[in-house]
Amino acid sequence: MSEEIKKFLYLNRRAPYGSIYAWEALEVVLIGAAFDQDVSLAFLDDGVYQIVKGQDTAGIDMKNFSPTYSALGDYEVTKLYVEKESLEERGLTVDDLMDLKWEDEDEDWAEKDSIILVSREELAKVIEGQDVVFSF
Amino acid sequence: MSELHTVNKSPFEKSSFDSCMAHVLEGSAVLLYEDGVYAATKGTAAAAKVAAAGGVKFYVLGPDLKARGLSEERLTDGVEVVDYAGFVDLAAEYGKVVSWV
C-alpha cells in the first residue's frame, strides 16, 4: 500500500441537532484520523453553528457532542477553517465560537488555535488544494 | 380563525420560514423550534422579517435555543421564549396549527 499522505477536507454545512449530518461527520473524521492523513475541517453555511460555545442539550434529550470538537487536536486534526461570511450572515463572530486549541509537540506542547478564519474566496482556494473532499 | 404557525427548519437552509412569513396573517402566531430557532436571532435576514411583521406574535422553544448555545440576549426583540408546556398551551389556544416543515 502506498505511503503517500493525502489531503482530506471535511465540509460541514449543517446545524448540529436538527439532522444527523454534524454528528456523522465527527464520527467519520475520528475514524479517518486513524489513517495518518493530512486532515482539515471546514465550517461554512449552517455548519458554523456546530462550534458555537455554550451548547446545553439537557432540555432536548439529545447527546451534546460539541465537546468532541475540543478533542480533535489530540487526533492531529488541527486545521479548522471557519468561513467569515457564514458567521456574519448569522449575526455571529469568532468570539461566539468554542476556543478550540491543539498542542504542538514540536514546540514543547505549545497551545495553538485550531480555528482559522477565512473568507469565502480563501475557502475556495483551500478546497482547490485538497486531494479528497467529504461533504456533510 | 387565528392560527399557530410552526417552523422547525433553519431559515438559511430551507424556505420554510420564508414561506411561513409569506402566509401568516395578523392575529396569528409563529412558533420557532428545532433549527427554526435560528430565525429568531439578531443580525440575520430573518430577524428583519420578524421585526417587520405587524400584529404577529413570535415564540421560540427555550430547550432548542439552549441546546444550540444561543442565549436569550441573542433573540430579536419581541420574541418570547416558551417551554414544552407553553408549546402545548399555544396549540390549544389557537384555532389550528399550521406546520412549515
Automatic annotation (TrEMBL), chain A:
<comment type="similarity">
    <text>Belongs to the DsrF/TusC family.</text>
</comment>
<protein>
    <submittedName>
        <fullName>Sulfurtransferase complex subunit TusC</fullName>
    </submittedName>
</protein>
<dbReference type="Pfam" id="PF02635">
    <property type="entry name" value="DsrE"/>
</dbReference>
<dbReference type="InterPro" id="IPR027396">
    <property type="entry name" value="DsrEFH-like"/>
</dbReference>
<dbReference type="InterPro" id="IPR017462">
    <property type="entry name" value="Sulphur_relay_TusC/DsrF"/>
</dbReference>
<dbReference type="InterPro" id="IPR003787">
    <property type="entry name" value="Sulphur_relay_DsrE/F-like"/>
</dbReference>
From TrEMBL, chain B:
<dbReference type="GO" id="GO:1990228">
    <property type="term" value="C:sulfurtransferase complex"/>
</dbReference>
<dbReference type="InterPro" id="IPR027396">
    <property type="entry name" value="DsrEFH-like"/>
</dbReference>
<dbReference type="GO" id="GO:0002143">
    <property type="term" value="P:tRNA wobble position uridine thiolation"/>
</dbReference>
<dbReference type="Pfam" id="PF04077">
    <property type="entry name" value="DsrH"/>
</dbReference>
<protein>
    <submittedName>
        <fullName>Sulfurtransferase complex subunit TusB</fullName>
    </submittedName>
</protein>
<dbReference type="InterPro" id="IPR007215">
    <property type="entry name" value="Sulphur_relay_TusB/DsrH"/>
</dbReference>
